[in-house]
What does this fold into?
Amino acid sequence: MNILVSACLLGINSRYDSGNNYNEEIAELRSKHFLIPICPEQLGGLSTPRLPAEISKGNGSDVLSGRSYVKNSCNIDLSAQFIKGSMEALNIAILYGCSVAILKAKSPSCGKDHIYDGTFSKTIRNGNGVSAQILIDNGIKVFNESEDFLSYLE
Ligand code: SF4
It folds into this structure.
């Protein structure tokens, strides 16, 4: 199966602070599956390193519909870059026929079910990031790294 994966979960230093979130269990899936690393924030044109960003008073769905926006810690609106990155991630998923994605939790791009609340205080709220949302809206089964993706992939 072709699986879209947040690049940072595969050890690629794409995080805002140039770090990664390597997850061995996910990386080992490559023995049975074709893993396609994507970083929607880089695909949207943002540099690495970059300032942290959070969705302000909303979720990925709100950003995609223009009801909310993504801002960085200097209050710069990055919604256009986040939306562009989400569309590029979707393009790659379609190109490779991915029906499943495993994405990094809490990210304003990749987060599924839980994201930071826009106050830069490590407070979590319910909701998806922009890219997770656009993938879900287009029929792709999205997991975060804490969910039981192994059972689904058996
Ligand atoms: Fe990882 Fe996604 Fe953030 Fe890129 S946008 S660093 S892939 S969580």
In short: Residues 6-8, 14-15, 39-41, 104, 107, 109-110 surround iron/sulfur cluster (CB under 6 Å). The longest strand covers residues 2-6. The mean pLDDT is 98. Strands lie at 2-6, 34-38, 53-56, 69-72, 100-103, 114-116, 124-126, 141-144.
